[in-house]
Structures are given as C-alpha cells and as structure tokens.
Write a structure and sequence with these properties.
Structural class: mainly alpha
Strand order of the largest sheet: 1-3-2
Helix content: 55-70%
Pfam families: HGSNAT_cat
Protein name: Heparan-alpha-glucosaminide N-acetyltransferase catalytic domain-containing protein
Keywords: Membrane, Transmembrane, Transmembrane helix
Distance between the termini: 12 Å
InterPro entries: HGSNAT_cat
C-alpha cells in the first residue's frame, strides 16, 4: 500500500465533477478519485488482516483452497486481492501527477521516500506484525519502497515509455523462470528479493512481495497518470473502458488456461467450486491474470467510488489521505485486538507474540473466531480508526513540516 503522496496543494480533498471542470486546474486539488479509491483499499485491507489474525481457519489452510474453502470465505479473501495492486498502481499514478505538476527534486524525493518505506517495513511494521524481535516479512510497503527507487531512474522518461516498460514486466517476467539460480547462492537471494517469494537465507524472514513484478504495476500507474489529468467525465469513461478491457482480456486468457497464470483452473465436482477455481489466480508473485482481474475491477468501479458521499465517502477520503498512517496503526490495532480477545477467552498471551515464524502453538490451542465475528471485528476496527485518520488528514493539510510528507 502506498502512503499519502500529496498530488496537489488543495486541503479539501475534493475535486470538481461538473462538465465545466475542463478549465479548472486539476493539480490544484487532490483528486477525490485517488483518495477515495485508496481509502476503499484500506477498508478491504483491514478486513483481510482481521481475518488473518482472528479467523479460526486462517492458520489451517488458505481461504482460496478450492477443495476446503466456502464460497463466503473465498469471496472474503478474493475481494481483498484488489488492495495491493491498486495501492501500487496509485503510488505510480501519484508520482506521475507530481511530475506533471512540475515538482522539483522529485528524483531525490523518490529515493528518500523509497528508503524510508523500506526502513518502516523492516522495523515499525515488522514489530506490529509479530510483537516480537523483527521477523523480516517483506510485503507491499517494501515493494512500493523498492519500486520508488527504480522509478527514480526512469522519472524523466515519457509516460508512455514507462507504461510500456510496466506492461512488458507484468506480462513477461514469468519467462525468466528458467533462469532461476541454484538455491543457497548469492544470486538466489537477489532472485527471491526481485522475482520469486521465498524465505531469506541466513535471516529470520520471508519475501512475500518480490520487487520486480510489483514495480511493473507501479510503472503502469505512472504511465496512466495522464488519464487522471483529464476532465472528470472523460476520465471516468476512460477508466471504465480500461477496466472492461482488462477484464475481457482476463476472461480470454484464463478461459484458454494457458499463459497468464501459474496454476491452471480445473473442473470440480461442484459447479460453484469450478467457478472458484477459475477465479483462483496467483498473487505470490502476481500473475498477469491476477493483475488483469484485480486492476480491471478497481478501475471499472473507480469513478463510482469517487462519487460516494456521506459518512462512507468521508471515511474513505480520510483513510485515503492518511493511508500510510492508517496502514501502520491498523496493524497494531488488529494484532492488539487479537491479543485482547485471546486474553479474554483464556489463551496465554505468549501465543500471540512472535507467531509468524511458528504459528503451530496457536493452531494447537484452537485459536480463532467464526466468520460472523470477523466481519463484526472488521467494522469495529474501521469505525475506531476513522477519527484518527480524519485527524491526521486534517493535520497534514494544515501543517507544512517536512516530516509529515513521509507519513
């Protein structure tokens, strides 16, 4: 997930939606579409992490295991697939908008921002995930940070060139699989960091998000920045068309059961499980089918998300404008909630400390809540975090201290 990279000077978080906004300087306002879409991804990510920490089956099998899952559990997990690729895409879009806005020293900012995100992943976030000595679990913040370092090299290229580079990476990096180095070698470490998820040799850690395929998605976002600069109606039509095109290509590739994903779908004993098998695309690392399906959905519905008003619209806007802050706080809140509920139910507290490297004691103790309670806890966390996110978003809009740009 990306942090709140400012794409304009406007403090309100709003944008014009009328047909006359062609003459309004869009870069003088934060784009409501970007903020609210990013906020929606925060809400979905909270659902995913609440499920991972509190669900009774989270440590027993993957919720996308077609042979063992239920339709609701599969849907609960699949919808959260939208989070990471959308966050990474919007990180690239935000950088592209800053370039269009003529931001000075953008390359230096990307380098310092990227290094800062990697440091956060290895320290503050690592502790939040495990409540113990850092288990180096390299996830989306690491991938975005590394992607910013790579994007700093390409920052002066035309948007369409970076878009082409991103498309080539997303569609073509699986072709490098035959060149994987032997395990245990120095090259294998670089391969794990860049291409293929896996444990980190000699370290207590795991790479869940290899950097290169996720950078491909960020490059797509940078290349798409001009779309977000168009007038609202034109932008909405373009995003809907791109989203539909991605979904159509996904259906074509997935239907052919050939190139596009690392695991083919198969006919199951029950029709609904066959449908789940078809939708069960690979995230680790992200396959072409995964990118097309998830980003296709996000871009298709983005214009509708931008128009949300009322309490829900305000919540999404606040989460989106304070996304990195909310991301960090929600991990502590979710893990802390699991610890508090566990203590209330009589589970020893040490079971919830340092369990990432060895979750078996939690499994043996019979930890976990039913799916109904997962949704209830998700809503509770969202409602609790909203005032904090809103406060921090206002703080960032009113204050100009340099360090606020990094939170």
């Amino acid at each position: 997930m990306t942090g709140p990279i400012s794409i304009g000077a406007g403090p309100s978080g709003s944008e014009p939606h009328s047909a006359n906004d062609r003459h309004v300087p869009v870069l003088g306002n934060r784009l409501a579409l970007v903020d609210k879409l990013r906020g929606l991804m925060i809400v979905l990510m909270i659902l995913d992490h609440v499920r991972e920490y509190l669900h009774e089956q989270a440590l027993l099998f993957q919720p996308t295991d077609v042979g063992r899952t239920t339709a609701l559990l599969f849907a609960t997990r699949w919808v959260t697939h939208l989070c990471a690729p959308t966050f990474v895409l919007l990180a690239g879009v935000a950088v592209g908008l800053q370039k269009a806005n003529g931001r000075t020293s953008l390359r230096r900012y990307l380098v310092t921002r990227g290094l800062w995100l990697i440091l956060l992943e290895l320290s503050v976030i690592a502790f939040a995930l495990d409540f113990a000595a850092p288990f180096l679990f390299l996830q989306v913040i690491w991938a975005i940070g590394f992607g910013m370092l790579l994007l700093a090299v390409l920052i002066h290229l035309p948007h369409r060139w970076v878009l082409a580079i991103g498309a080539v990476i997303v569609a073509g990096y699986p072709l490098l699989a035959p060149f994987a180095p032997e395990p245990g070698t120095g090259g294998a470490i670089a391969w794990t960091l860049l291409f293929q998820p896996g444990p980190l040799p000699w370290l207590n850690g795991f790479v869940a998000y290899p950097a290169l395929p996720w950078f491909g998605i960020m490059a797509l976002g940078f290349g798409m920045a001009p779309v977000f600069l168009a007038p609202a109606m034109e932008r909405a039509r373009t995003l809907v068309c791109i989203g539909l095109g991605m979904l159509a290509l996904f259906l074509l590739l997935r239907g052919s059961n050939g190139y596009g994903d690392f695991q083919p779908w198969a006919v199951q004993a029950e029709a609904w499980r066959t449908a789940l098998s078809f939708l069960n695309v690979s995230k680790y690392p992200p396959s072409l089918d995964f990118v097309l399906a998830t980003l296709g959905c996000s871009l298709l519905f983005a214009p509708f998300v931008a128009r949300l008003t009322g309490r829900l619209g305000r919540m999404l806007d606040a989460f989106g404008r304070a996304s990195l802050f909310t991301y960090i706080v929600h991990i502590y809140a979710t893990h802390g909630l699991a610890l508090v509920i566990g203590l209330a139910l009589g589970f020893p507290p040490q079971l919830f400390l340092g369990f990432l490297s060895d979750p078996q004691p939690l499994v043996d103790a019979g930890w976990g809540l039913g799916l109904f309670w997962i949704y209830l806890c998700w809503l509770a966390v969202c409602v609790t975090l909203y005032p904090l996110a809103a406060w921090f978003a206002v703080l960032k809009s009113r204050r100009r201290e340099w360090w606020l740009r990094y939170l």
